[in-house]
Amino acid sequence: MRGTVPGLPSPHPLGGTLPALYADDSFAQRLCRGLDEVLAPALVTLDCLPAYLDLAPAPADLVEWLASWVGAALALHMPDQRRRQLVAAAARLYVWRGTPTAIRTVVELSTGQVPEILESGGTAWSPDPDSRLPGWPDPGLIIRMQAADQPIEESQLKSLIAAFVPAHVPWRLELRR
User: Fold this and answer.
1) Average pLDDT in the 118-133 region?
2) pTM, rounded to two decimals
3) pLDDT at site 149
4) In sequence order, what are the residues at sequence separation of 6 or more whose Cβ sits closer than 8 angstroms to the Cβ of residue 121?
5) pLDDT reported for residue 9
6) Fewer CB near the last or first residue (10 Å), C or N of the chain?
């Protein structure tokens, strides 16, 4: 939580911005000093906003807040570096939403494992009109991976995958023991 920081000087004291009429008014100056103490942390935060939005030096609680902006589900016990990589890549991955590349990348960033992705569809070319079509007849997607040593819960992983799988395609996550 952010709050007041005792002794933090305000980068923009309010007392000096008052009209000349209040420059010698002790009550107005004391009121402004009291407001300076309350506003100083907010002003310092706003002055440093680009550093807060940069994921490398951002505080951990702000990384979680930025994750909510881009719809990334973060597990509490996920390593900090992996959390930051997932949040940084999430907005870029929405461009590739619905593709195996996006699904593979988001699973790899959240678990550290490269999943096996099986799709029902496909394209092929053949001079023989009776050749076998690629894939299988029912639409679907299967994501297979090892269940051991996952830094994210299965329900969180499913909600993260659901954001990148096309809405009209049934899919399932298979965790191998």
Assistant:
1) 84
2) 0.64
3) 66
4) 134, 135, 139
5) 86
6) N
Instruction: Give the pLDDT confidence of 130-163 residue by residue, as tens digits.
Output: 888 887 788 899 999 987 666 678 888 888 889 8
What is the pLDDT at residue 133? 80
**Other Cβ atoms closer than 10 A to 53:** 11
Q: Which residues contact 60 (CB under 8 A, 6 or more apart)?
A: 80
Q: Tell how far CA 16 is from the center of its chain.
A: 41
In 3-state terms, the chain is what percent helix, strand and coil (to 5)?
45, 10, 45
Q: What is the pLDDT of residue 1?
A: 52
Reading the block at residue 127, the tokens are 């001079």
Q: How many angstroms separate the CA atoms of 143 and 118, rounded?
A: 7
78 in Cβ contact with 101 (< 8 Å): no
Q: Which residues sit opposite 11 in a β-bridge? A: none
CA distance 40 to 13: 9
For residue 73, count other CB atoms closer than 10 A to its CB.
22
Specify the residue for token string 């807060």.
52
| Bridge partner list, 105 | none
Contact 67, 86 (CB under 8 A): yes
CA gap 40, 3 in Å, rounded: 10
Residue whose pair of structure tokens reads 């699904």 in the numeric block: 103
